[in-house]
Amino acid sequence: MSNTNWWTRPCGGFDVLRQAVPLIISTGSLSLMNFTDRMFLMWWNPNAMTATMQAGLLFWTLTAIPNAIAMFVATFVAQYHGSGQLNRIGPIVWQGIWFGLALMPLFILFGPFFLLGFRVFGHSAELLALEDQYLSWMLWGSGGTIAGEAAASFFRGRGKMNVEMYVNIFCVSLNIILSYCWIFGHGGFPAWGLAGAAAATAVSMWVRFLLYVGLMIHVGRKDRRFNILGGMNVDVALLKRLLYFGISSGSYTFVDTLSFTVFLMIIGGLGDFEAGATTLAFTLNLFTFLPLAGIGIVVTSMVGNQLGNNRPDLARRATNTAAIIGLAYTAFFGFLYLAIPNLLLGAFASFSDPEEFEAMRGMSVILLRFVALYLFFDSCIAIFASALRGAGDTLYVMKTTLILAPFLPLLCWLGIRYADFGVYGCWAVLTAWVWTFSAFFTLRFFGGKWEKMRVIEGELQKM
C-alpha cells in the first residue's frame, strides 16, 4: 500500500472504514432496535416510551462501570495481539466474563433501592410505575450484558468487526420480533406492554452473550495460540490489572451517563410533554450517537494494536482518519435533522393520539436543531476519548469527566430554579457542555502524552 495516499496507506481511509463499516452497521442496528421499541411503545402508551428512556438510562448508569471494565478487555486484547502475546488473550477475556456474571445477583438484590431514584424528581405516578417496571426487568439481563461485552472484546481487540456485526444484527432482529409479540400480544403471547419490551431486550442480551462465547470457543479449538480453553481459570493478578485500568475508564462512563440521566430526570420533572419530546429527539439522535460509538470502538482497537506494536505514528493516523470520517457522518445527519425533521418523526405518529403527538412534534423539531449543533463535537468526544482509552490514558479521561460532567445537571437545576429555564434552556446547557467536553479530549489527544502509554505488562511489550 502507498504510504502517502490517504485512502490506501496503513491506518488510512480504507483500513479504518474496513473495520468501521461493520460496526456502523452493527450499532446502526442497535439504533433501529431502540427506535422500533420506542415506536411500538409510543403506539401502546406515550408514557411507556418515555419510561424506556428514563429507566433505560438509569440501567446503563448502574452498569456503566462494570460494562466499561468488560469493554476495556478489548484494549488488553489489542495490545496483546499487537505485541504477539496471543496466549494472554484467552485469560483476559475470561476474567471479564466471570466478572460480569458475578455481578448480576448484586444488581437484582439491590434493585428496589435503585428504583427510589425516580421518586426524587417529581415524575407523574403513571410514569413512575412504568419506570419501575422497566428497570426491574432490565436488571435480569445485566449479567448477559456485561459478560457479553467481555466476550465481544475477543473479536473487537483483534479487529474482527464482522463477527460483531452479524451477532448484533441477529440479536437486534430477535429483539424486534420479541418486542412486537410481547408488547401487543401477537403470536399467541399475552400482551405484556412495557414489560414485554424490557423482557425482549434482556433475552436478546443473554442470546448475544451465548453466541459470542460459542464463537470464541470455536475459534479457540481451531487456534490454540489464543489459550481460550486453557485460560478459563480466575487469574487474580490479571483481574486486578483489568480492574485498575477498567475502573478509571468506567468512572468516565459512569459519571457521564449519570449526569445525562439526571439531566433527563430533570427534564421529566418539567412535564410529560417535555419528557416525551426529549425522548423523541434523543431516539433519532441514536442514529448518530451509536454508530459514532462504534467508530470509537474501532479507534480503541487500532490504537491498542499499533501501540502494542510500538507504532504510535500509525495509532495517531488511524485516529485522525476516524475524525475525518466522523465529520462527514455527522454533517450528513445534521443536515437531515435540520432539513426534514417532520419526515423523520413521522413513524411515531402512525398509531398515536394526533393531538398528543402534535404537541410533542413541534417541540421535538426545535430540539433536533440543538442536536445538529453539537453532533460534530459529539463525534470528537467519541473518537479522541476512545484513542486515549486505547492507549491506557484512562486517568485523564476519568479526572476530566469527574470535573466537567456534574455541570450539566447542576446548571440545568440552577437555571430552572433561579432563571426560569424551560426545556430549551436545558438543551442549550447540554449543547455547551458537549462543546466543552470535546475541547478537553481533543487537546489532550493532540498533546501526545498518550503515545508513550501501555496497559499490558512491561515485560510483554514488543521492543
Please describe the biggest sheet, giving its number of strands, its sense, and whether it closes into a barrel: none
Number of domains: 1
Helix content: over 70%
Following the backbone from N to C, one meets helices and strands in this order, namely: HHHHHHHHHHHHHHHHH
**Structural class by sheet pairing and helices:** mainly alpha
Low-confidence stretches: none
Please report the number of helical segments: 17
Strand content: under 5%
- What Rg, in angstroms, do the CA atoms define? 22 Å
The overall pLDDT, averaged over residues, is 88
> Separation of termini?
24 Å
Task: Detail the topology: elements first, then pairings.
Elements: H1 13-44, H2 46-62, H3 64-83, H4 89-109, H5 111-114, H6 125-139, H7 142-156, H8 161-184, H9 194-222, H10 236-270, H11 272-308, H12 312-339, H13 341-349, H14 354-391, H15 394-404, H16 407-418, H17 423-447
Helix pairs in contact: 1-2, 1-8, 1-11, 1-12, 2-6, 2-10, 2-11, 3-4, 3-7, 3-10, 3-11, 4-7, 6-9, 7-9, 8-9, 10-11, 10-15, 10-16, 11-12, 11-14, 12-14, 13-14, 14-17, 15-17, 16-17
What does it look like?
Helices cover 80% and strands 0% of the residues. The chain is mainly α and 463 residues long. The chain has one domain.
Give me a quick take on this structure.
By secondary structure, this protein is an all-alpha fold. The chain contains 17 helices and no strands.
